[in-house]
């Protein structure tokens, strides 16, 4: 169907870029399990290698199964093109290694995923790139952190782990005015709820391990943006900086996952909203952070950027870390684990798990308290999730 690109989100996630009649009627796209490709002439090989014609040469750079996934993800994010990688961190590092060089600076929000923080704070410095951290909830702080060597700004929204919100349009406008790239990690919201490119960002990143894959059984990453940037990331960051190619079978699984992405994210969001309301009304809870609550910090930004609150809830207990440990040990349905976006409800303690790479001083400086908990609300029957959480809270 030639009009698929103009169809709705779910239709494109299921159909875009593939006609079963082109593949002997196979309803599911074929899985290409090959590492290398032959050509009918040396001229054809050279044309493909130089980017003068479409085709495939070697699986580290591109594979037809990956290409279909890239086309669908790009469509869902409203991007010109995309490249998939072996993990979310591979997506981040391939992007940075391709677009930055020694002597450059990048301004980064002070709250990001812990391993990404380590890459910015320690890894990039080994190659002469300096990360400058700023509070991205204050656009004026971002502007103040930009210097003559700055080449890009980077942030997550909602941010891991406390779900703080950044105004994409405001930060992108500042960066664009200085000739800088805006890079946004959209893992938590997914393109179902938020599309950063529509608000002025240049590049969108995903850990496809999370909601895009959606079943806790794979590792994958994705970068979406303008063709020129994606070409550079594929041919530099992916091909020879990291070599972190997504396997064709994993690409096949992510293709399967995004077919139900819209439905899953809607269910995650509705259940998470109910969880946030339960937490807000419980005597043991000191504070709740959820973009879907009307009185959450940054609620005005949420109304502009997000179509729903998402599937994650962060909260602090009045009893601090000791109460948090008691709660985690009391839950029967929710599992203690570091990931998110799975069908299973998962809970974790950021200070000792996903954000342990932040020093205690940095956690205190950036507002990551020792008592903060992050809950990834799953797809179980909502009443069961609520009952499990309530029995654990009542023990406090």
From TrEMBL:
Origin: domain of life: Bacteria
N6-(pyridoxal phosphate)lysine modifications at: 210
GO-annotated biological processes: methionine biosynthetic process; transsulfuration
Membrane-crossing segments per the record: none
Alphabetical list of Pfam families matching this protein: Cys_Met_Meta_PP (PF01053)
SUPFAM superfamilies: PLP-dependent transferases
Molecular function via GO: methionine gamma-lyase activity; pyridoxal phosphate binding
CDD domains: CGS_like
Classification via InterPro entries: Cys/Met-Metab_PyrdxlP-dep_enz, Cys_met_metab_PP, PyrdxlP-dep_Trfase, PyrdxlP-dep_Trfase_major, PyrdxlP-dep_Trfase_small
Record keywords: Lyase, Pyridoxal phosphate
Cofactor: pyridoxal 5'-phosphate
Example of a GO cellular component annotation carried by this entry: cytoplasm
EC number, UniProt record: 4.4.1.11
Family: Belongs to the trans-sulfuration enzymes family.
Full protein name: L-methionine gamma-lyase
Gene assigned in the entry: mdeA_3
């Amino acid at each position: 169907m030639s009009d698929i690109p103009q169809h709705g989100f779910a239709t494109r996630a299921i159909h875009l870029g593939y006609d079963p009649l082109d593949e002997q009627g196979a309803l599911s796209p074929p899985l290409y399990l090959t590492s290398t490709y032959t050509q009918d002439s040396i001229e054809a090989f050279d044309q493909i290698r130089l980017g003068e014609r479409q085709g495939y040469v070697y699986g580290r750079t591109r594979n037809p199964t990956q290409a279909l996934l890239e086309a669908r993800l790009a469509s869902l994010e409203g991007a010109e093109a995309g490249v998939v990688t072996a993990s979310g961190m591979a997506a981040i590092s391939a992007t940075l290694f391709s677009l930055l060089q020694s002597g450059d600076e990048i301004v980064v929000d002070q709250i990001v995923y812990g391993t990404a923080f380590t890459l910015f704070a320690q890894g990039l410095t080994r190659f002469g790139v300096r990360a400058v951290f700023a509070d991205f909830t204050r656009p004026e702080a971002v502007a103040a952190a930009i210097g003559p060597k700055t080449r890009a700004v980077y942030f997550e929204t909602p941010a891991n782990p406390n779900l703080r919100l950044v105004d994409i349009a405001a930060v992108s406008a500042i960066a664009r005015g200085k000739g800088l790239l805006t890079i946004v990690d959209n893992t938590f919201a997914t393109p179902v709820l938020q599309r950063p490119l529509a608000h002025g960002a240049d590049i969108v990143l995903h850990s496809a391990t999370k909601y895009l894959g959606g079943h806790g059984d794979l590792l994958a990453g994705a970068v979406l943006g303008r063709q020129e940037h994606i070409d550079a990331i594929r041919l530099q960051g992916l091909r020879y900086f990291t070599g972190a190619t997504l396997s064709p079978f994993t690409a096949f699984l992510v293709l399967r996952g995004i077919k139900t992405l819209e439905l899953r994210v809607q269910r995650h969001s509705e259940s998470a909203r109910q969880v946030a309301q339960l937490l807000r009304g419980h005597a043991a809870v000191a504070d709740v952070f959820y973009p879907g609550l009307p009185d959450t910090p940054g609620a005005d930004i949420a109304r502009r950027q997000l179509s729903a609150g998402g599937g994650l809830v962060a909260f602090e207990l009045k009893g601090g870390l000791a109460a948090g440990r008691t709660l985690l040990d009391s839950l029967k349905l929710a599992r203690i684990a570091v990931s998110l976006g799975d069908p299973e409800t998962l809970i974790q303690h950021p200070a000792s798990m996903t954000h342990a790479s932040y020093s205690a001083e940095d956690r205190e400086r950036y507002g990551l308290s020792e008592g903060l908990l992050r809950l990834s609300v799953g797809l179980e029957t909502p009443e069961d999730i609520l009952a499990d959480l309530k029995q654990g809270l009542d023990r406090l």
